[in-house]
Design brief:
The protein has a domain of 64 residues: wza like fold. The model has no long low-confidence stretch (mean pLDDT 84). With 117 residues, it is of the alpha+beta class. The chain has a 3-stranded antiparallel β-sheet, covered by helices on one side. A two-stranded antiparallel sheet has the order 3-4. Helix content is 30%, strand content 21%. The chain has 2 helices and 5 strands, in the order H-E-E-E-E-H-E.
Length: 117
């Protein structure tokens, strides 16, 4: 009786494993995952447009770091600097402009600008 029960358990286990493995054979390949934060169409030549949002980071001066919208007239306003044209520039070009303006108030400012898309 024990041999018969053991034999049925072995057969049941083998059939279960075979069915489980046969289900795996019909899977299609999965699509390639993208890295978090990767955006299509945004590259190093990205140009700022009106109605964009920008994150401005001023190293060692967190009180000047802020998020700002680009107004419909294409300008931004950040602390210590009044209106500054932004549209048509890359974030790096705009960061250099902000550094020039801030150098009146801060010694050797380092500015990084990100377009928040």
């Amino acid at each position: 009786m024990i041999k018969r029960t053991f034999g049925k358990a072995v057969i049941f286990a083998v059939v279960g494993i075979a069915l489980g493995l046969s289900g795996c054979s019909g899977l299609d390949t999965l699509p390639t995952a993208k890295v978090a934060g990767e955006k299509e169409g945004v590259g190093t030549d990205y140009r700022i447009g009106s109605d964009d949002s920008l994150q401005i980071f001023v190293w060692r001066n967190p009180e000047l770091s802020t998020n700002v919208p680009v107004r419909p007239d294409g300008r931004i306003t950040i602390p210590l600097i009044e209106d500054l044209p932004a549209t048509g520039k890359t974030p790096t070009e705009l960061a250099r402009d902000v550094e020039k303006k801030l150098s009146t108030y801060i010694q050797d400012p380092i500015v990084t600008i990100f377009a928040l898309i």
